[in-house]
Every structure is written in C-alpha cells, then in structure tokens.
Design brief:
It contains 25 helices and 22 strands. The chain has 819 residues and is an alpha+beta fold. An eight-stranded mixed beta sheet has the order 15-9-8-12-13-14-3-20, with helices on both faces. It is globular and about 85 Å long. Belongs to the carnitine/choline acetyltransferase family.
Length: 819
C-alpha cells in the first residue's frame, strides 16, 4: 500500500513541448484534457474519412432517401420492389412486437444499400470521366462537342464544396504506355543530340530490346498497375530518393524564397513567430482536410474549363537513415519545433492546453533564444553537418548519437520541422542587387553546412533582417506540394496574421509561458573527428555551387499570352536558344511535369530539346533566315513542346515508363543494353517552372510585390545547369540558375545573360515585342562557353538599354491578358 501512496504523491517535472508540467496537482485535469484531445482527433479523422468516402453524396442525402422510402411506405407504395419485406423476414420478430420498428430498420437497411450503390456508381462514373484526356489536346481557344459534353458531366458528378481527399477514390490509375510507342518517342527525343553513328547504334539496341525483353517486362508492369495504386510512384520514391547514398545537401534539396521586394517586418523573432504559426495552421487544416483540392484550370476563349486535380498533400515527415534504403517516418501530431541559433539547439513548444500558441507567444519564445547569451558547447555548433555526409556514414554515426544523446536526437527528429535563426541578413539590396540575390539563394540551398538538419523535411530559415526561406528535402514531396504550403504560409503570415505598427506580432506576450528547452548533446569522442570531416565536405560542396537569381522585367506572362502562346513553352524554347549560345551544342533537357491527374501520381519528364526547337535555334543563328521564317519555326517548336507536355500529363511520357521497365529488369536479373544506356544519360540542362497555385491568396494587381519569388535547385550534372523560373504576376519572370564552379564549361551568370538576350530576341520576332530587343545573327558555336565574355561585349553594343534588368521594376506596361 505504501507504493500506491508514493505513486499518488509523487511529484515529477516533465518536459512537454518546452513547458514544465507538474503532474501531482492537476493530474486528473491533464488526463481529462489529454483524453478529450485524443477523442477529438479520432472523431475528426473518422468524420473526415467518412465524408471523403461518401463524396459527392452527404449524410443528409441518406436521410433524405430514408425519409422518401418511409413516406412511400406510409402511402402503401413499395419502392424496393419487395426487398424490404425480405429484409423484415430476416430480422428477429421480437414475439410479434415492435412491428413498426422492424419496418423502420428494414427501410434503413434498404436505404443504406441503395445509397451505397449510388455512391459507388458516382465514383465509377467520375473515374471514367476523369480518364478522358481529350480536353488536353484541344487547340487553344476552341472546344469540341465531346469535350463540352464531358465538361458538363464532370461538373454534375464532381459535386460541390469538396474536402481535400474527396476525389481521391475517383482518380484513375496511371496507365502503362505502349512499349513500342515509348521506344519510338525516346528515339525521337535523342535524335537531335546524337551523331548519326550513335543514333543508329541506339536504334539497333532498341529493336533488340523490343524483340527480346519488352513484352515480358511490360507484362509485369501491367500486373503491378492492376494491383498497386500507381505502377511507378513508389519505385520512384524508393530507388531515386531513399536508396541514394549521396549527400542530401544540394543533391536532394531545393529552396523556396520569400517575397522579393518587400519584408513585412525587420524583426527576426516576429517573422519567425508568424511563419511558424502559419505553417502549423496549414498542418491543422491539412489534418482536418479543410484545404480544397487543387483544380487544374485551362483557359479557353469562350469558357473556363476545369479538371479535378487532387494534390496529394501531407504535412512533411522527416527522413530517417536506415542503410539502405532510408525511411520516411510520418509524425502524427508533433507539438514542438527544433530551433538552431549560434550553434545551440532548442526545443520550442508550439501548443498549450488551449491549443496552438499565438504568434505573439511564439515570437516571445524565439526572442528569448536570440537573447540567450549561453555559448555553444564543444563540437555542438557543427553537429548538424553530419546530416550532410554520405548516407551510409551518417547512418553509422546516428547510431552512436542515438545511444549517447537519445533525448536531444529525438527532440530534433520528432519536431514538426526545423527552424534556423540565422545571424546574418539576406535578400535583395539596392547597393548590389545581383550579388545579394545570389547570396540569398546560396544561403537557402546550402547554408553554412552546419545550420540545417537535412534529414528534416524542410528547414525554415529566418534571417536577422526578417527575410524568410525554405530548404526542402525532396523525397517526401515535389515542388508544387511544398509550394502550395509555402504560398499559404506567406499569405497567412502577411495578410491574415499581420504585424503591429512597431513590427511585432499582433497580440500580447504571455508572462507565464515557460522558456524554450535547451538541448544538450552527450557526444562520444569518436564522433568529433567525423563532425570535422563532414563539415569540411559540406563546405567544399557548398563552395562549389554557383547560384544566380535575376528578375526579368522587360515582359512577362501577359505579353506571351498576347502572342497566343503557352508561357511555359515560350520559356522552354527560349532556354534552348540560350543554352546553345552558351555551350555551342544541344543537350538532353529535363523538364518536370506533374502527373497529378492520376492516383498517387508524382512527376514525368518532358524532353524539351526537340527537333523543332533545334531547327528554330539554327534559324536564329543564321543570317539568311528572315524574322517570318524564324517565327514560323518558333511556333512549331512551341506546339511540339505543348504536345510533349500534354502527353506527359496524361501518362504517355517516356522516362517513368522506361524507369519502371529498368527496375523490373533488375528484379528479374535481365541484362538490357538498351535500358542500361537510357539510364546512363546525362542531363546537362534541368529545368522546372514553379507554379503559383493559389492565386486567390494574393492580390497581384493591388499588391504586385507580394508574390513569392520562387526557388531553385542544384544542377543535375557536374557540367550542367539547373534552371527554374516563376511568373511573378503578369510582367516579371524570375529565374534561378545553378551550376558548379569546378566546371570549366558552365557559368551561371553567363547563362543568365544568354537567357535575357534570348528572351528579348524571341520577343522581337513578334510585332508587339519589336521595341524590346534586336536580333543577333550568325553567332553559331562561337558564342558558346569558349568566348562568353566576347559574346557579352557584342550584345552590349547591340541593345545596351536591355542588358541589365531593373532590380526594382514598376511593371513593364504590357497589355493585359486578352479575353
């Protein structure tokens, strides 16, 4: 009995999300609140799953159906054609009593069966409708009768007010393309970059593959497509990301920037408080499925057509290294964030008994960390550099940390996300706009090598002047998914939460709030030289990255749409011209396209270096070609790119199919020289557009500066470029370029200059753009990397007024989008 007495009176201080909790006095209250929170979560999930499963119907529709059946029964009508009588016979008779109750139960069971059958029919009908992709092939500005009929049916069957995953059960599965067609498209894509001899040899290997192995491998893919939700996505995640043993830094992460021209507050702690609160609000809405599914919008002259596009959103899970492969661990409801500042780690609670802490309370926590004078302990400052090491090395070292510093490691890995309070400013400056933007991008992509925990799904970096940025690990989600979250964060923290006149978060501090918990690491002696070695490798990798960011303000999406062209295709063809002038040759070009029209779809590759694009580039470099001829070739290249993009979106791309075939061949231990050659290719130009998906969150016309400036990624090849771009409003395009300084063939700034010139030269082919730039003739391979500086001097004499984009534009004054 004394043991029970000691247990009841036992007082112990526990750390819960950074707060000291006394369990003796409020124990019953804490148990009650804990149980209440648990049941609320379970009930909320049950409700969400149930509503998602029955959509586009609703529980109210079941009640209406049951009432109609009861009314018909009261009027002595039998809408069930005798089924309810058979159901009544199966129910217990209760000694002849409760006759009306048996009738009501029979009606309820029949209504439920009929309701379920109708819902299943609606799901099947919607899945069949969404399997139609003919709308993608419609010429811009026109719509055929079948597509109009299909659109009307989609509107009818898609229902109203959907939740996040309401359409998940209705999405079709990604089809397995015809292997003969895939090989044909592949050969077509490599023809512009191969010599005649190399292409003929590749064609021979392709024919041998089709004759000997293709049918068997294809059969396994069809089997997987029938059994699994998606025939390629899980393999893509595992073999491309989780089984890779390279460093995550630069190789597997990308970054997202803050607003380019404005900073809502210069107070670092205030910006961190609002941003963390907004991110956790996003998680809350995501858990409750209160975020509507993304709808793909296609503009036509006479109507706006939409197609349901479910974004498979999930709040970022951390990545754990379990050699090999790594493992993505999903955290259910983490209630703290891990914070890094001046070499020290902290655990900051984000919730109280009443729910999520206010932005002002979070600001108070971050300000305490900024003012804490305690120094970092030996080797603690550079500990996070271990996460930049090769995965096998980090796996072994993590086991040592887990044995000696399990609590601190668990606090970091179990956090909702990682926050880095940087001691340096960042962002665009008027004194040196080019260098400041380049440094901003580099800080987000690589940092200092020890101020990011790269295993975490993302690191929120808050700089000393209030600038924000996100460094995202790639395996858990592609850029449109994290971009969706980032748009919500920027819009919420700036427009909804806001700041007071003195720059602080709105609200009042909480004097009763416990201080953040400092994390202490018991580091074994053998890990100290490993930290130094990892830091040296991280600094080498970071120092080798050449980042260049520039806003192109001469024209933007508005001008391109006035030319009746796709903005993305316009940029992609112009990039081919820029890259040819930079390197003097064509190369395989990787452009990411989304396959979210299918269940659990991720990405597909658009091979943007086409024969049509090469013909246009050659014409632009030929003095004998007229502007009319070049314009005609440019339109052909744009149309070809649009066809490839639509094929990729509709599941008829090349690379994911060939990737899945290669994985099957490895499982079967079949040697395929053709597939081996395909997957030994080098992508010297990797490109991506960062879309703005939630335009309703931003008022581009009244607040044109409050638009995300996009983000970037590292190059896919040691001698290649990584190029991303975002259309900021209607009149600005921001480019993010990366390459490696160790390469003598690449230069990010040189390519940036070629991109500016290429865009101006292409625009000058159109009547509306003739005042923007002038044509440059006969450069050929002489304008490549061997004479980049001379090329730039030549351009300066041609149109000097357009060489340097205004870093603080007021808009290009181009026409609005046509109706």
């Amino acid at each position: 009995m004394s043991e029970a007495h000691q247990a009841v009176g036992f007082r112990r201080s526990l750390t819960s999300d950074g707060a000291e909790v006394d369990l003796s006095a409020p124990v019953l209250q804490e148990i009650y609140l804990s149980g209440l929170r648990s049941w609320k979560r379970h009930l909320a999930r049950f409700r969400n799953d149930f509503l998602t499963g029955v959509y586009p119907a609703s529980p109210l529709s079941w009640l209406f159906l049951f009432g109609a059946i009861q009314l018909a029964w009261f009027l002595q009508l039998d809408p069930s054609l005798g089924f309810m009588e058979k159901i009544k016979e199966l129910l217990p008779d209760w000694a002849g009593q409760h006759h009306r109750l048996r009738g009501a139960l029979a009606a309820a069971l029949f209504a439920s069966c009929l309701w379920g059958a109708l819902i299943f029919t609606l799901h099947v009908a919607l899945r069949l409708l969404l399997s139609y992709h003919g709308w993608l092939l419609e010429p811009h500005g026109t719509m055929s009768s079948p597509t109009k009929t299909w659109l009307a049916l989609v509107r009818i069957f898609s229902g109203r007010h959907p939740m996040l995953f309401s359409y998940q059960r209705s999405l079709p599965r990604q089809p397995v393309p015809c292997v003969q067609e895939t090989v044909r498209k592949y050969l077509e894509s490599v023809r512009p970059v191969l010599s005649d001899e190399d292409f003929n040899w590749t064609a021979v290997l392709a024919q041998e593959f089709l004759r000997l192995q293709a049918s068997l491998l294809q059969w396994y893919l069809h089997l997987k497509a029938w059994w699994a939700s998606n025939y390629v996505s899980d393999w893509w995640e595992e073999f491309v990301y989780l089984r890779s043993r390279n460093s995550l830094m630069v190789n597997s992460n990308y970054y997202l920037m803050d607003f380019l021209y404005v900073t809502p507050t210069p107070l670092q702690a205030a910006r961190a408080g609002n941003a963390v609160h907004a991110l956790l609000l996003y998680r809350h809405r995501l858990t409750r499925q209160e975020i509507p599914p993304v709808k793909l919008i296609s503009l036509h002259r006479k109507c706006r057509m939409f197609v349901i596009l479910v974004t498979y959103l999930a709040f970022p899970p951390p990545r754990f290294c379990l050699c090999p492969p790594d493992h993505i661990h999903h955290l259910c409801d983490s209630r703290h964030v891990a914070v890094f500042h001046r070499g020290r780690f902290f655990r900051v609670g984000t919730h109280s008994r009443n729910g999520l802490l206010s932005p002002r309370a979070l600001e108070q926590q971050f300000q305490w960390i900024l003012e804490d004078p305690s120094p970092a302990r030996p080797h603690e400052e550079h500990l996070a550099a271990l996460t930049t090491a090769p995965r096998d090395t980090w796996t072994q070292l993590r086991r040592s940390l887990e044995m000696r510093a399990a609590e601190a490691l668990g606090a970091v890995e179990g956090a909702a996300f990682f926050v880095s309070l940087d001691s340096e400013p960042a962002g665009l400056t008027k004194e040196d706009p080019t260098a400041s933007l380049d440094a901003y991008a580099h800080a987000l992509l690589a940092g200092q090598g020890y101020d990011r925990w790269f295993d975490k799904s993302f690191t929120l970096t808050v700089f000393s002047n209030g600038k924000l940025g996100l460094s995202v690990e790639h395996s858990w989600a592609d850029c449109p998914i994290s971009g969706h979250m980032w748009e919500f964060t920027l819009a919420t923290e700036c427009f909804q939460l806001g700041y007071s006149e003195d720059g602080h978060c709105k609200g009042h501090p909480d004097p009763t709030l416990p201080h953040p918990q400092r994390l202490y690491w018991d580091l074994p002696d053998k890990i100290q030289p490993a930290i130094s070695l990892a830091l040296r490798g991280a600094k080498t990798l970071s120092g080798n990255i050449d980042c260049h960011v520039f806003p192109f303000s001469h024209f933007g999406k508005s001008f391109i749409k006035c030319c009746r062209l796709s903005p993305d295709s316009f940029i992609q063809v112009a990039l081919q011209l820029a890259h040819f002038r930079d390197r003097g040759q064509f190369c395989l070009t990787y452009e990411s396209a989304m396959t979210r029209l299918f269940l659990e779809g991720r990405t597909e590759t658009v091979r943007s270096c086409t024969r049509e694009a090469c013909n246009f580039v050659r014409a632009m470099e030929n003095d004998e070609k007229t502007d009319t001829q070049c314009l005609a070739l440019f339109r052909e290249a744009v149309e070809k790119h649009q066809a490839l993009l639509k094929a990729a979106m509709s599941g008829q791309g090349v690379d994911r199919h060939l990737f899945a075939l290669y994985i099957v061949s490895r499982f079967l231990r079949l040697q395929s020289p053709f597939l081996a050659q395909v997957h030994s290719e080098q992508w010297q130009l990797a490109t991506s557009q960062i879309p703005i998906q939630q335009r309703h969150l931003f008022d581009v016309h009244n607040y044109p500066d409050y638009v995300s400036s996009g983000g970037g990624f590292g190059p896919a090849n040691d001698h290649g470029y990584g190029v991303s771009y975002i259309f900021m409003g209607e009149n600005i395009i921001t480019f993010h370029i990366s390459s490696k300084k160790s390469s003598t063939k690449t230069d990010s700034h040189r390519l940036g200059q070629h991109i500016k010139d290429a865009l101006l030269d292409v625009a000058s082919l159109f009547q509306a753009g003739q005042g923007l730039g002038c044509r440059r003739r006969g450069l050929g391979t002489d304008s490549g990397h061997k004479s980049g500086s001379l090329s730039n001097q030549t351009q300066s004499s041609r149109h000097p007024q357009h060489l340097t984009s205004d870093p603080f534009p007021q808009g290009a004054g181009l026409p609005e989008e046509p109706e």
